[in-house]
Amino acid sequence: MTRIDQVVQDAAEDARDNGRRLRLWLVVAVVLVALLISSYAVFRLYQSIDNLGSQADNNANAAKLLAQQVEKLGGVPVVQPPEPRQGVQGEQGPAGRGIAGTALVDGRLLIAYDDGTSRDVGPVVGQPGAAGAPGRGVVGTAIVGGRLVVSYSDSSTEDVGQVVGTDGDDGQPGRGVTSVVAVDGRLVITFTDGTTQDAGPLPAGPPGAPGRGVQRAEVRDCTWFVTYTDGTTESAGNACTTQTATVTPSPTTTSTAPPLLPLGR
User: Fold this and answer.
1) Considering just the CA atoms, what is the radius of gyration of the chain in Å?
2) pLDDT at residue 5 tops 80
3) Burial class (CB in 10 A: 0-12, 13-18, 19+), 240
4) DSSP at 254
5) 85: three-class secondary structure by DSSP
């Protein structure tokens, strides 16, 4: 076999291999397409089944409501409505566990569960941060030109702003009191504008001390002795004289002097 024949034979073998591989890929492609079509058909079928099931549930609920309305109206439904379908109940899952308590130990969070177990969640408290810049305090305040100026402990000052407002308009002229007198037990005030005001009755003063009267007057050993109603006795002067005193009562006053007694004992 010549070199050319060998090349031709190899080319023929390659062509046959390529043909087999192409047929194989075609078969695989057809199978994949068929699987995709089947999967889509199955998906649509399940979707249709779900839609029909949901529609059946809706119809069952509507029929049940209609039956309840008929019963409320006093009627008896001819056909009892079907019960909505119930899903398949799965198996009961394992009991869960709750948190019984938490604690911080060396900056780490520890969780204790109600089943007796515990878990170290990890660090939850960070490292202390760097120290901040020194603060400043207020050492004094002053009002300058109606503005508040604050002095701080770092020797700086700050003009906070206007704190004193402008003067308002002048008010109406006032009036003073020129006199205060009592008239018939009432306080009357006279003002500088010529008006007067009755401020009302004056309060009653405190009661005075009890007075005393003359109970009797007598002469003992040429001396007047006056005895008062409070039991006290007082010497009123010499009663032995050769002159006769004449007392003329005043028309507007009443004499309270003791009567003259005969001279002698």
Assistant:
1) 64
2) no
3) exposed
4) -
5) coil
